[in-house]
Amino acid sequence: MLKKITNYFVIPFAICVILMTALFPKTTVDMTNFSTEGLELNYTVSEDIAMLSPTEGTFPTITYDKYFPYLGKSYLGFKEALAFKESRGNYFTVNDFGYLGKYQFGAETLKLLGVYNPQFFLYTPELQEKAFLANSERNKWILRKDIARFVGKEIHGITITESGILAAAHLAGPGSVKKFLRSFGGYNYSDAYGSSISHYMKRFSGYDTSFIKPNRRAKAVL
């Protein structure tokens, strides 16, 4: 009986010991393989070299547009810059005052553009993009005479541009922009966060908004 018990426990135990020895042999790590002795680890660059521009030294000129989308002063640059100011480019955000999406539209403005379901609008990025273009087209039609009259002039040191006017209209509405221009800055609406018409005029000046065509009846349609 004792022999059977031994066979049941001792032999399996011996097999386990042999397997553990084979699978996990005792090894000693040779730390010299990881030594940094003799390596040149000083990467300090002298100030005169560090401050060189690419044209002054032997550094290659980096062409970022090969690797990153560069929107510059294009229409895409305009709308993305404005979206970043409004919502950090977040399609699905709603602010404390109920303004929706990437470009922070109010419900009443959306109705003018033919959008009557704010919830659907919030979760439909394509509709938000169409709404931005339609609203810009509508504002450009309303402000067409003021654009022709004021572009190139200065108001309080700000050179008036079409893109600045359209950005300000997105902030405050075309009526408020008309008041600003025709009062030569005397009327300067600010929203609840302190962003003013003059600030938008300056911040978003100089973009190419020729892509936006004046359209009195512009609608956001999928």
UniProtKB/TrEMBL annotation:
Transmembrane segments: 7-25
UniProt keywords, alphabetically: Membrane, Transmembrane, Transmembrane helix
Keyword Transmembrane among UniProt keywords: yes
Protein name: Peptidoglycan-binding protein LysM
Domain of life: Bacteria
